[in-house]
Amino acid sequence: MELVETMTPLAASNARLKELRKLSRRSERSERRLFLADGPKAVEGALGVPDCVVEVFATPTAAEQYAGLLAAAPTVTLVDDRAMAGLSDSVTPAGVVALCRFLEPSLVEEGRQARPDTTPRLVAVCADVRDPGNAGTVIRCADAAGADAVVLAGDSVDRYNPKTIRASVGSVFHLPVTTERDPFAAVAAARAAGLTVLAADMDGESLFETDLTGPTAWMFGNEAWGLPDALRGAADRVVSIPIYGRAESLNLSTAAAVCLYASARAQRA
């Protein structure tokens, strides 16, 4: 770690920090191919991917608190609390933010432990998922369930949205998260890879009566209106989670967790 020593930590008025705050905009991130990872878990995940982190910014207190973590950073620059509040997406910043390069699937794979079988067996496809918190939580659930990838398809939120990164709690750095503008192309690619495409939606066959032992791509729709009929029709099967109580439905990230873990369990039985 190279600690950039200054007489005082950088203030919010610093010109370079002003430029970094622009990365809150998707267009700016796309043009510069840079994004911010906020919080110790996100920074830890980013540091686990080779050549991902450009620089870490920390308050003096956080630099001391997370000294072990920051030892792996290429450069650490101290900033004051107000400057950190401008870089962080959190209401109560933890005091560490990493400036990161866009993730390429090859870089993520290089940072993962090698698997004996590289054939994908479990993939999550999010179609038109607009809420960054939901997208990040689905990524986290997919990571926990041992999924091979997450695809953000259609008009889904940007994977580098600060809230998506934060909600994934570092998982965005643990498995490939890709984008596909055309959700039907994502379905076709999954099928070409040997995956059975299951649409998670209402009025389908029961999850608990579905054979989940084979390679599977789960497709999840928009938070408000679910999957459009055409996309439902493109799936091999439509599967629903039984509701035993009086709740009308489950929210997106909860439904994704149930479906992904059902597949993970069946594939490991």
Give the SSE map.
Blueprint: E1 2-4, H1 15-21, H2 26-32, E2 34-38, H3 40-47, E3 53-58, H4 60-65, H5 67-70, E4 75-78, H6 81-87, E5 96-101, H7 105-111, E6 122-127, H8 132-144, E7 149-153, H9 162-167, E8 177-180, H10 183-192, E9 196-206, E10 216-220, H11 229-234, E11 237-240, H12 252-268
Parallel strand pairs: 1-4, 3-4, 6-7, 6-10, 7-8, 9-10, 9-11
Antiparallel strand pairs: 2-5, 3-5
Helix pairs in contact: 8-12
Instruction: Give the CATH level 1 class of the largest domain.
Output: Alpha Beta
The tally of helices reads: 12
Low-confidence stretches: 106-116
Distance between the termini: 44 Å
CATH homologous superfamily descriptor of the largest domain: SPOUT methyltransferase, trefoil knot domain
What's the count of strands? Answer: 11
Any idea of the CATH topology of the largest domain? Alpha/beta knot
What global shape is seen? elongated
Protein name: RNA methyltransferase, TrmH family
InterPro entries: Alpha/beta_knot_MTases, MRM3-like_sub_bind, Ribosomal_eL30-like_sf, rRNA_Methyltransferase, SpoU_MeTrfase, SpoU_subst-bd, tRNA_m1G_MTases_N
Organism: Nocardioides terrae
Keywords: Methyltransferase, Transferase
